Amino acid sequence: MDKEPITLNGLNKLKEELVFLKEKKRPEIVAAIAEARSHGDLKENAEYHAAKEEQSHSEGRITEINDIIARANVVDVTKLNNEGKVIFGSTVYLENLDNGEKINYKIVGKDEADLKQKLIFFQSPIGKGLIGKNKSDLVEIKTPAGVKNFEIKDVKYI
Predict the structure, then answer these.
(1) Which of 1, 37, 124, 148 measures 20 to 30 Å from 115, CA to CA?
(2) pLDDT score of 1
(3) What is the pTM of this model?
(4) For residues 23-49, b (16+ Cβ closer than 10 Å) or e, as one string?
(5) Domain boundaries, the chain
(6) CATH of 77-156 given 3.40.30.10, 3.10.50.30, 3.40.50.720, 3.20.20.220
């Protein structure tokens, strides 16, 4: 069983989702199933089948979260010495050398990744291209959209 790197924030969000699913969602689904069952014939009861399907998805997610938590290797970069190296959990400040755009990304695990929030998966092309590099390095990264050239302006462990 491989350990899965995760930030402290990512682990806390998973634990919150788990509590929500177990304490709020699960009882709601059970009630919906009971309600649908009371309507009689289950074969043609769309509400019953929808509730059972939702139950299946919810229980699957509970199992998935429990598995991730069991394999979690929490990386808290705030406790590490920052020597300007890009590592899992660090926030990287970049300048796109092709268009001058400034952008920053936090490098995170699979379940935390959310491009809109500037959280990138460490195994993504950009994540892989940045890990191990240092502040002031020039980096060329092959992405699905083509080659991008960046300068690493700063690396923070926050």
Answers:
(1) 1
(2) 64
(3) 0.81
(4) eebeeebeebbeebeeeeeeeeeeebe
(5) 4-75, 77-156
(6) 3.10.50.30
